[in-house]
Amino acid sequence: MILQGLFDVLFNGLSIGAVLLIAALGLAIVFGLMGVINLAHGELMMLGAYTTFIVQNAFKPLADTPLFGLYIFVALVAAFLVAAVMGLFLERQVIRYLYGRPLETLLATWGVSLILRQFVRSVGGSMAIGLVLFSLLFWGGQALLRRRPDWNQLQGRALAVLLPLSGAIALVASFLLNGQPALAKPWFSARNIDVTAPGWLRGGLNFAGLQFPTARLFIIALTLVCLAGVYWFLQRSAWGLRIRAVTQNREMSACLGIPTDTVDALTFALGSGLAGVAGCAVTLLGSVGPNLGANYIVDAFMVVVVGGVGKLVGSVVAAIAIGTLTYLLGSGNVPLWMTQLNLTESLKPLFDFFSFFATTSMAKVMVFALIIVFLQIKPAGLFPQKGRGAEI
Amino acid sequence: MSMQLNRRKFLVLGSATAGSVLLKSCASPGGEGGDTAAGGDAAGGDAASGETVKVGILHSLSGTMAISETTVVDAEELAIKEINAAGGILGKQIEAIKEDGASDWPTFNEKAIKLIDQDKVATVFGCWTSASRKAVKDTFETKNHQLWYPVQYEGQECSKNIFYTGAAPNQQIEPAVDWLLENKGKEFFLVGSDYVFPRTANTIIKAQLEAKGGTTVGEDYLPLGNSEVTPIITKIKAALPNGGVIFNSLNGDSNVALFKQMQAAGMGPDLYPVMSVSIAEEEVRQIGPEFLKGHYAAWNYFQTVESPANTKWVADFKAEKGDDRVTNDPMEAAYVMVYFWKQAVEKAGTFDIDAVREAAYGQTFDAPNGLYTMNANHHLSKTVRLGQVRDDGLFDIVYSTDAPVVPQPWNQYVADTKGFACDWSDPAKGEKFQA
After folding, report:
1. Do B264 and A213 touch (CB under 8 A)?
2. How far apart are the first and last CA of chain B?
3. Burial B319-328 (b: 16+ CB within 10 A, else e)
4. Most buried of the four, A233, A245, B119, B177, by CB within 10 Å?
5. What is the DSSP string of B263-302?
6. Which residue of chain B has the CA closest to A288?
7. Cβ distance of B286 and A287 shorter than 8 Å
């Protein structure tokens, strides 16, 4: 009985930990390797989840064939690409101007997260056309002007003219198009959307009297694959080597001919893409709506900070530890075992303590409290970076 | 460059951000009442000046509650449109001013103050969660204004300035518990979101189960918006190894997680029937009927109610908002409350808050769910129904009360409020008196 209970705790702790880890993996890369506090990480997850929704709808004609069950793999790839492209855009347009200024990055990405949330709520045909029009005019105009030899002197004035001009044209266009009801209707609206997991991910496997939900097993497997992929990419590939080099010493890497700009963009796109994958994975468990990201972002940061910034292995251990702890406290297993072992009387205060924290809300309080205590003892997390570079 | 941010710095910055987020959510909703209490009497006059009369619509158009509250706004807008098309109220067209409470309770209070003081509306239709209603209650009372609240709730409240057109507990929770005890089993596990409605509702359920021979084998609460339900599922399995009844008062997003993960854990409606009090047709559509099929919900109104008024209303709603839309209980209550306000205003002959309030008592309306009567305790007498989710996401009605149930805002199973009632038609009785 106790053995089965332990096994149960291990599996469920692992499954909660896997969700935490997959949400935190991208963050661990962006934050750990680049030092960028990306508060829009959750919203990149949300974009991944919405991509899953779109892919699922694209597969609807196949609903009765076994092929439909495979949409999730297409969705994973699509979610990675969409989030990575969005991340790339974000890095090029916002974050690269703010490297080394954590407070500004924090505020800017917070702003981006609000924009993205409202974007999925209100995006519709007319708005999309307006955005495309704006991008064409603004960047197209810049590209044209850039050919002139006196671009450097023109730059400031050109931007001052181009930005309001293309903005105004796009606004007027989308305002006019709003007259068409078909175009004015938002695609997703503020309402949550229904992402249905394929049939084979909805049931569970029975083994030795325990039920293993397939969705959880799938997420654990997916997390392992992502981890292995990231490890391979960072440790074994040429670009991984460059990323690590830039992380260790940016100036020296630049001197040696490593394109640090490209490395930054690539790292950020990779982290964002992983957020997209995480977004796709969590559609199997919960609801999909504009606020999906906000539910995960705090947990994700918690994992990275507890694990130690810049170390993937730290994030892995931290995610599993937090997952197991959350489960152990929240499920009320501890008081249950104490009852079974007849320890309720002899260890009464301990029993009362665990019973009090045996609700989901209180377990969360307890986990946060423990993390605070832990960070007092080890402020740099489980696996702090060592060496002279660590505290610069 | 990346090294410029070290861990210690991040912790400082991070905790500053987290702290400010926490502070924001804890900010006290009170504090504004005292010095601006003069607004009330003037409101009626100002609101109705000119060709139009302004009313406020105060719901979450964004945030975690938007999933539900936007549908209620649609129903209110439909009623207002119909009334305007039929000539308005006292010869004036209704002008609705929409404010977004953003699923944030202090924001609700700010917007309520704005509607009352700046827009000088004649009345306000609004709120969904009890937390948002409690946040604005003081404002409406100190400013002596009027709120119409369309959602079933936990009771234990009877404000002079709020009309509750959703179900009181004895019109939803109690009949549901009785029916479950009779048909589904004696052992109950209670799951709810962590705020005032589920906690009060579960107190009532526990008292009722004790009185009627059932047992509460466990209860748990999930923070609003949380979707990690693994510990709860383990607890349910431990407490009810051979199946039993789950009484679910989760609100918003967490429902999706519960039903998706219960199915994955192999807990179907045959062994673990779930009775939900916050899942109606609209939510079924968004969670997905395949996860909910066979589970139950307790309401007054379902789209599948058979009555001429309902057929017409459903058709009108679909014509207005789209064929793919569904109607549900809070929407019906929201639609009906606009008409109750209209009738009260017409009877009073003025938009004055107190006159309208007194004129509202005893009003009847042929609602889609049957005949409704406004009681002097600010709640409606209405028929109670239980439904079971079917393939198409609508409900098969498995039980209806024979006659409209008279509402009891003060719960008769809870020791503190046993024997109390509410009657605003008699100033001597008021909010809470020993019946």
Report:
1. yes
2. 74
3. eeeeeebbbb
4. B177
5. HHTT--TTTS-EEESS--HHHHHHH-HHHHTT-EEEES--
6. B253
7. yes
Residues B1, A197: C-beta atoms closer than 8 Å:
no
- Total domain count for chain A? 2
Residues of chain A neighbouring B321 (CB-CB closer than 8 A): none
Asked if the Cβ–Cβ distance from A309 to B10 is below 8 Å, we say yes
Distance (Å, whole) CA B75 – CA B81: 10
Residue A386 located in a structural domain: no
Q: Which pLDDT score, from 0 to 100, does residue B12 have?
A: 54
Q: Cα(A239)–Cα(B216) distance, rounded to whole angstroms? A: 59
Q: B225 and A191 in contact by Cβ < 8 A?
A: no
CB A51 within 8 A of CB A280: yes
Residues A239, A177, single domain; the answer is: no
| CB–CB contact B11 A379 (8 Å) | yes
> Residues near B134 by Cβ (< 8 Å), separated by ≥ 6?
B105, B196
Contacts of B62 in chain A (CB under 8 A): 118, 121, 190, 290
User: How many Cβ atoms from other residues are within 10 Å of residue A187's Cβ?
Assistant: 15
**Residue B19 near chain A (CB below 8 Å):** no
Residues A210 and A95 in one domain: yes
Which residue in the set A291, A331, A379 is minimally distant from B234, CB to CB? A331
> What rounded mean pLDDT belongs to chain B?
86
Chain B nearest CA to A30, separation (Å): 10
Residue A49's pLDDT is what? 94
Q: Please check whether residue A391 lies inside any domain of the structure.
A: no
Kindly identify which residue of chain A lies nearest to residue B71, measuring between CA atoms.
A191
> Is the pLDDT at B80 greater than 50, yes or no?
yes
Q: Are residues A259 and A284 in the same domain?
A: yes
Q: Are residues A67 and A171 in the same domain?
A: no
Decide if B234 and A327 are in contact by the 8 Å CB cutoff: yes
Which residues of chain A have a CB within 8 Å of the CB of B221? 359-361
Q: Do A282 and A49 form a contact (C-beta atoms < 8 A)?
A: yes
Do residue A392 and residue B3 have CB atoms under 8 angstroms apart? Answer: yes
Which tokens hold the place of A296?
A: 């995960």
> Does residue A305 sit in the same domain as residue A158?
no
pLDDT tier at B10, thresholds 50, 70, 90: low
Are residue A212 and residue A155 in the same domain, yes or no? no
Query: Could you list the residue range(s) of the whole structural domain that residue A9 is in?
Result: 2-123+186-199+206-381
pLDDT bucket at A349, cuts 50 / 70 / 90: confident
CB contact under 8 A, B228 and A326: yes
Q: Give B21→chain A minimum CA distance, Å.
A: 11
Interface predicted TM-score of the whole assembly (ipTM), two decimals: 0.77
Q: Give A194's contacts in chain B (Cβ within 8 Å).
A: 285-288
The overall average pLDDT reported for chain A is 86
- The answer to whether B294 and B275 are in contact (CB under 8 A) is no
Contacting residues of B for A358, CB less than 8 Å apart = 235
User: Using 50, 70 and 90 to split pLDDT, how confident is the model at B32?
Assistant: very low
B161: confidence class by pLDDT, cuts 50, 70, 90: very high
pLDDT at residue B332 greater than cutoff 90:
yes
Per-residue pLDDT reduced to its tens digit, B204-239? 899 999 999 999 999 999 887 777 888 899 889 888
Threshold 0.80, pTM exceeds: no
Q: Is residue B10 helix, strand or coil?
A: helix
Q: For A243-289, what is each residue's pLDDT tens digit?
A: 888 888 888 899 999 998 999 999 999 999 999 999 999 998 888 88
Which of B17, B230, B285, B320 would best serve as a mutation to test chain A binding (most A beta carbons within 10 A)?
A: B230
Q: Which residues contact A377 (CB under 8 A, 6 or more apart)?
A: none
Cβ of B265 and A204 within 8 Å?
Answer: yes
